[in-house]
Amino acid sequence: MTSPRTRITKAVIPAAGLGTRFLPATKATPKEMLPVVDKPAIQYVVEEAVAAGLSDVLMVTGRNKRPLEDHFDRNYELEQVLRDKGDDGKLARVQESSDLATMHYVRQGDPRGLGHAVLCAAPHVGDQPFAVLLGDDLIDPRDPLLARMLQVREERGGSVIALLEVDPSSIHLYGAAAASPTSDGDVVRVSDLVEKPSAERAPSNLAIIGRYVLDPAVFDVLRRTQPGRGGEIQLTDALQALSADESLGGPVHGVVFGGRRYDTGDRGDYLRAIVRLACEREDLGPEFREWLRGYVTEEM
């Protein structure tokens, strides 16, 4: 187990999924590049990592994911066109994504689950603690969940997962945590994890959402983890092993999140995320809210 005081600088973003829920839009476009208002979803995730102090970002990609690399790279031709036009506003927005962080990429190859995607990051991460951010979960920047998780890791060591209280009827969509309170009201000690349990088997209604701060000991556990549901290596299984035996890599704690989260992995939630974020934009919100009120009134 590494020292809790070890400064965390690296983020891992798994982005190898096929995005089949959004076909045919994702036939030739990575789901991570689908726009949320006027930025691709993946940019919000990278911005969150950077805001929490993580300057080194590794994306675990797959086939047909080249647009991700292009988006975070420079586009000199486009920049020059905008510069010649004197369009400094658009030029700044184009350059923003390429200046966010130091970006790295590795191919997952066979899509063998989230645990396998995390394991692909081992050569880059080495023996340092790191964060994992899943692209389907967008966390509102006014609710700094990842920064809080990094603080808990520094104070308590081991690994930290993000938890959300959900309706028991929907716990089968998530990993579920058995947990006990700590001296911090938003922090729990995790003693067990179950991947996508039925409501009857779920240890609680605390669902794992897509933010993790992991001790590098997780890599050794993942290497020994047998494929589970769907023949995939589950990160939840590795975390369950860590929670059951502290000697493997320290304790597992959870931060119970009560802020604003936007799920872009579901078509309906994706649309709701766009509407919410557009409504809250200073440049778009006033006019858009007025139109939306009129539209809803007409449809009622």
UniProtKB/TrEMBL annotation:
Domain annotation Nucleotidyl transferase: ranges: 10-273
Enzyme class: transferase
EC identifiers of the protein: 2.7.7.9
Catalytic reaction annotation: alpha-D-glucose 1-phosphate + UTP + H(+) = UDP-alpha-D-glucose + diphosphate
BP-aspect Gene Ontology terms: UDP-alpha-D-glucose metabolic process
PANTHER family linked to this entry: UTP--GLUCOSE-1-PHOSPHATE URIDYLYLTRANSFERASE
Protein name in UniProt: UTP--glucose-1-phosphate uridylyltransferase
The species this protein was found in: Streptomyces reniochalinae
